[in-house]
Amino acid sequence: MTLPIIAITSGEPAGIGPDIILSALQKTFMGRLVVLADPSLLAARAEELGIKANIHIIENIASLPKHVGGTIYVQPIGLAHTVTTGKLDVANAPYVLETLQVAGTKCLAGTFDAIVTPPVHKGVLCETGVHFSGHTEFFQQLTESEQVVMMLATPSLRVALATTHLPLKDVAKAITKTGLTQVIRALQQELINKFALPNPKILVCGLNPHAGEDGHLGREEIEIITPTLDALRNEGMDLIGPLPADTLFTPKYLNHCDCVLAMYHDQGLPVLKYQGFGNAVNITLGLPIIRTSVDHGTALDLAGSGNANHGSLEVAINYAIDMANNSKKVS
Ligand SMILES: NC(=O)C1=CN([C@@H]2O[C@H](COP(=O)(O)OP(=O)(O)OC[C@H]3O[C@@H](n4cnc5c(N)ncnc54)[C@H](O)[C@@H]3O)[C@@H](O)[C@H]2O)C=CC1
Ligand SMILES: NCC(=O)COP(=O)(O)O
Questions:
Q1: Is the CB of 17 inside a 6 Å radius of any atom of ligand 2?
Q2: Per-residue pLDDT tens digits for 109-162
Q3: I need a labelling partner for 249 at 20 to 30 A (CA). Which of 52, 273, 280, 293 fits?
């Protein structure tokens, strides 16, 4: 079988992206890996960390060999400024965006089979004047996808989000019957297609404390979430909820479900990160391409220190390889 080609972007160059790439790629993977980065960034960070890395520029992606620990193939993308480890520099924000643009475009064109993204710093990207709220939204726009869903997974828990990077004050109005229906349909379809779950059981969180306490603590459950779930249940979907989010995340419920749908970022992700930070994967569902990512951010405080854990990147690469192999079997 031909091994899939996985493109790994560098993430924020001042953060731990380069560190975790260098340390994770000391391992061998059953895929062909190419890093989209400035080679001088990787070489400088390798020296800072005392990591031996044979960095090669790849001319022809089709000739990329199986990844063997310690050798890194790079498709070069140039930085604007030399990076000071741990210090954001807005001049390098276009470089970060270019790595994502090249990865997404070449994945759509079939040059790459999947993309894995180390963390970017949303704030410094926004300082260029573009509104960048996350890779999820970036790749949705690039691929012109109608509905995407952010889902993070550990070996025993999957948490998907009904809304992604929204200020809390905007969350309630973003929970609509149409939006929620689209999210649940996309989630259900991807759990079937990508996770071989023929009839996934999805637990759905309420939005308000105690799922609205019969309307006394908010009416979104009564007016929006329950009618949406009822309509989708009538189509045969296995949906439980809306359940109060504070007690849904307990073994009694979690032991009998395939995925939790949280209404917003900080309702679902703290639980998942408490359970599996450092070893979880972030997957964008609903895209025509495969994109996985790490469960953590840029950790500027750890860049160049040797203390950044590459566990989540390793999981993200292995998920991308498995998903790419499965999609080749299907097509
Ligand atoms: N996939 C992505 O691109 C993501 C990007 N971010 C961005 O990262 C930036 C910083 O976000 P924070 O909330 O501070 O989260 P963070 O994950 O960067 O840091 C939170 C804490 O976890 C530690 N940490 C993070 N990754 C680690 C690793 N691999 N090994 C050991 N310790 C680790 C950090 O030192 C810090 O104490 C923000 O701009 C945020 O938007 C955050 C999450 C995901
Ligand atoms: N907390 C997850 C996160 O912010 C990553 O988002 P994205 O960049 O994958 O859209």
A1: no
A2: 999 999 999 999 999 999 999 999 999 999 999 999 999 999 999 999 999 999
A3: 293
